Amino acid sequence: MAPTTLSALRFAWLEVTGLCQESCSHCYADSGPKGTHGTMTVADWLRVIDQLADMGTVDVQFIGGEPTLYPNLPDLMEHARGRGLGIEVFSNMAHVRPELWDAFTRYGVKLATSYYSDDSAEHDQVTGLRGSHRRTRANVQKALELGIPVRGGVVAVRSGQRVEEAARELVSLGVPQVGGDRTRAFGRAAQGAAPTIRDLCGHCAYEKCAIGPMGDMWPCVLGRFLTLGNVKTASVAEVWKGAQAARVTADIAAVHGTGVQSCTPPQFLPMCGPCGPCVPSVGHCDPREAKQRGGGVGRGRTA
């Protein structure tokens, strides 16, 4: 199959750190308390934000690790806002510094968080951090009280997990959008197995990319084993339009086809609306799987 021409770059995940207070067994980024902020400097990130804005990117999502642990996050949010980018921060919301609440409000930031159960013990078992459920729940409430938009994602990690109850609790708190997903076989969740293109959803590099703390650009947050290039040695546009990116995109298309093949989980992509009726039951997040099981599936908005 001939190399696929990459689309316009409308959205970018900016993974500013691999450090996280939690140590979830299903973490696709393999982040945790031993993670680092990598080699990207603040100047590097500011340059990347400028280059994305110049390319017509609409939204960025700051992720980790836990992005609120990155000390210069307010500076990056201020710069992104100044360049007209929409901003979302995907946080575990286990701890939010006072200055971050001010920055979220000042720069019109949206928040997203993962939630695993309405039972605090079960939630804490998933995150590996005692008290995480209580803190996350309290900070979701605080964000909503401050008028900060929040969306939630419930990931089915283990059999019998109270995922539907978790989704209902978020809704009861006032979270208007709750998505769902299953565990994806990447990072620690792969349990040592090599990642494959077939495990991806097929949307990779479709109007989106991810940039990691070492400067590597990936077609999505899960496809970090498919490096498009590095923004420390080339501009975002040069990497996005480069030969390596074209090869990676062609490899993905060879497996998944050239069209939009399945829903991008709203757990990860803010431009997607919640699917129905599968969310928040998280029973069928991939239309192909739903079809095989004979179940119905709603449509997620991909742009």
From TrEMBL:
Source organism phylogeny: Bacteria, Bacillati, Actinomycetota, Actinomycetes, Kitasatosporales
This protein's UniProt keywords: Iron, Iron-sulfur, Metal-binding, S-adenosyl-L-methionine
Protein name: Radical SAM protein
Source organism of the structure: Streptomyces stephensoniae
CDD domains with a match to the protein in the record: Radical_SAM, SPASM
Limits of the Radical SAM core domain: 4-207
PROSITE patterns, alphabetized: RADICAL_SAM
Source domain of life: Bacteria
